[in-house]
Every structure is written in structure tokens, then in C-alpha cells.
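User: For a reading group we're discussing how well predicted structures match intuition. Take Amino acid/amide ABC transporter ATP-binding protein 2, HAAT family. Before you show the prediction, I'll give you the sequence so everyone sees exactly what went in.
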Amino acid sequence: MTAPVLSVEDLSVRIAGLHILQGVSFTVAPTGVTVLLGRNGVGKTTTLRAIVGLTPRNGEASGSIRMDGGDLLGRPTHRLVRAGLGYVPEDRDVFAGLTVAENLRLAERRGTTPAYDKVFALFPELDRRGRQRAGSLSGGQQQMLAIGRVLLNDNRLLLVDEPTKGLAPKVVTEVAEVLERVAESVPVLLVEQNLAVVRRLARDAVVLAAGRVAWAGAAAELLAEAELTRSLLGVGSGDHHGTPTPAGVRKDES
Ligand SMILES: Nc1ncnc2c1ncn2[C@@H]1O[C@H](COP(=O)(O)OP(=O)(O)OP(=O)(O)O)[C@@H](O)[C@H]1O
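Assistant: Thanks. Here is the predicted 3D structure of Amino acid/amide ABC transporter ATP-binding protein 2, HAAT family, as C-alpha cells, for the group to look at:
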């Protein structure tokens, strides 16, 4: 078996006195997309933030998080990013008052050559809209900018939090297509609630429930078991024959 790019072991996170993660353990394969699933509020974002060293000041993370064997826990975020951890947060966090080009320039890392060619090949619109203020971009375009600026630098692993949240169906499909291409060259740990997107992208799945890992295995296996999906996620997985739920339809909201 190939060594995982990331190993999380017995991760516990307490925030403001709440024990949110209670000994979470899972691995991320060195290729493809691993999806982190679970009902609302179960701790998916908390997990990604712990990995990238962003547990809030009133919180505490313990356990072990290793990327390529090196321990990440306790290291400051800027060092983790320099070590190749790319993070696309849930709310995109683009600088609304700056232009697209300025947002990208801010992501450049000293001492390395930013991969503008790669980013503009994936997102031609970011090139065309270089002088537009990021705050006036559509939600989908802001998401592309948030992903694009992370891809300016080399990454060993990408953490992507709910990239399709709140987007129109057509844009959900565009974001999924882009992530599919991105995942050809860098492994991705993805938090995603849209099961059509999960079905399309994910090879492996990890499901959180009650502060722990409730299920881990092949994403296709999880989605093929309607009862299992319903009990773990509280949603149906579409039909049993592999017909994708139409992109953009959030089954969890039905
Ligand atoms: N800074 C914080 N202060 C207090 N509670 C927090 C904080 N951050 C997260 N929590 C709590 O931790 C729990 C897990 O939150 P988290 O955002 O990780 O869940 P999630 O699985 O990503 O949810 P969703 O699917 O709704 O985005 C929630 O109950 C949340 O209210």
C-alpha cells in the first residue's frame, strides 16, 4: 500500500470548553480526492483548521497530524503553508477591496516562481478579470480566485472546505470540473456536502459523527449504500445504480 500523504491520529479539539473532536483518526491517500463528510456541525471545518494550525486561541488541539511523516501539530500556519499545505477556506476569504491581480500577487511566495501559467490555464477568467475588484466577482468567480491563488505555489496537499456551497448548479459543475483537474496533480482533502460532487470526485471517504470517525472507506461503497448514507449523513445518496444526482441539487436540503 502506498504511504498516505497525511495521517491524523487521535486528534482532539476543544474550543470554548466544548470537546468538538474526540480522538479522530484517518489518512489521506497520496493521490486523488478524499472527502470528509458528516452532518452539520460535526467538526469537518474544525478538522481542516486543526490540520492547518488555525484552531482558535480559545481552543486546543492534541493528538498527531503528520504530512509525509513530519508532525504538523503546533507548527504555525505560515510554516505549514510553506511546507506545501494549501488551504481554501469555506468562506473563500478573498480581499474584496483588492483587484483579482492584487489578490493573486498577495499569494506569491518569496523565493519561488508563481505558476501564473498554470492558474490562468485552469481559470482563464482570472486573467481576463485581473483589474476587477474581487468583491464584485460572482460567488463562483470568487471561489475560482480562492482556489487559483493557492495553486500559484506548489502544494503537497490541498485542503478545500465546501467549495460549492451557495453556488448555482452550473457553477457547481464548473468548480467540480476544476477540482477534478487539480486533483490529477495534487491530493485533495475535501469537505463537501453535495453528494453529486462527492460521487464525481472522491475516491475515499471519511465520515465524522459525534466527534469521531464513524466510517471510512471507498466513497463509491458509501454512496452505493442508501441506508448507510442516510444513517451517517441524514441524506439519500441518489439511486443505487450510479446515476449522479443532478449537480447543484443539495440532497441534504431536500
Ligand atoms: N470558534 C468556535 N467557538 C465555539 N464553538 C465553535 C467554534 N468553532 C466551531 N465551533 C463549534 O464546533 C462544532 C463543529 O463546527 P464545524 O464548523 O467544525 O462543523 P462542520 O462539520 O464543518 O459544520 P457545517 O457542515 O455546518 O459547516 C459546532 O458545534 C460549532 O458551533
